[in-house]
Design goal:
Number of helices: 10
Number of domains: 2
Low-confidence stretches: none
Pfam family, one: DUF6532
Structural class: mainly alpha
InterPro entries: DUF6532 (IPR045341)
Helix content: 55-70%
Distance between the termini: 44 Å
Protein name: Unplaced genomic scaffold scaffold_33, whole genome shotgun sequence
Length: about 220
């Protein structure tokens, strides 16, 4: 049974619990986050429950700890759902600005150019192609931005989930790739007015976009 050592009013946290529980929770959270990206990055309630079930079983196998799944502990894990999207978008924002050629400025010419870039990239998912010509496009998914964000998000160091739970992300699964494309599109959407504005990367706003990208892979 999990021993809660700290009581407070806010969200439940892993560090509120004893060392054994913390070890188990660290494992189950890593397993859940990785499975989430690999299998159902924008899950409905049933998918989310299934992911939690499987992740809990795997964490038990990995740690040897048989921990009862309380609502509070489950919440600590499932809270990671929105965190994954938030972290991905945060890592992407600057990359999108620099690599895709946007320029933060209040000058009319820069704003107009940013709008033009954003519209051009969004058209027919041009941002996912390495080479754009009048006579056609080549190199679908070969753009450096895609590989860069995959490495940054999941494989930057030995502690990252892509390394620790590599069996879920090698080969890199289509749902995770569709999530990356959707996040890139969200970052491009932020430039559609010509000046970067924050657009939350939520399931409500981007589930349809995610499904469209997944269908094309």
């Amino acid at each position: 049974k999990a021993q809660k050592l700290v009581e407070h009013e806010g969200r439940p946290r892993t560090r509120d619990y004893d060392d054994v529980t913390q070890e188990f929770m660290t494992t189950v959270i890593g397993e859940y986050r990785t499975r989430l990206c690999a299998e159902a990055p924008m899950p409905d309630h049933i998918m989310e429950t299934n992911l939690l079930d499987v992740s809990w079983v795997q964490a038990h196998k990995a740690t040897g700890v048989n921990l009862a799944r309380t609502p509070q502990l489950a919440k600590i894990v499932t809270n990671r759902r929105s965190q994954v999207r938030g972290q991905l978008k945060t890592k992407l924002r600057l990359l999108v600005e620099v690599i895709l050629g946007f320029h933060s400025s209040q000058s009319k010419s820069a704003i107009k150019k940013n709008q033009s870039i954003a519209e051009g990239l969004k058209e027919g998912t041009n941002f996912a192609f390495k080479v754009l010509h009048e006579d056609g496009r080549r190199g679908f998914l070969k753009v450096p931005l895609i590989q860069k964000i995959i490495n940054t998000m999941w494989f930057a160091n030995k502690h990252d989930n892509g390394v620790r739970f590599h069996n879920h992300l090698k080969p890199f699964p289509y749902p995770a790739l569709a999530l990356v494309l959707t996040a890139i599109e969200c970052c491009i959407d932020e430039w559609m007015t010509g000046m970067q504005t924050d657009i939350p990367f939520t399931i409500q706003e981007y589930c349809g976009t995610y499904k469209s990208h997944l269908k094309c892979l």
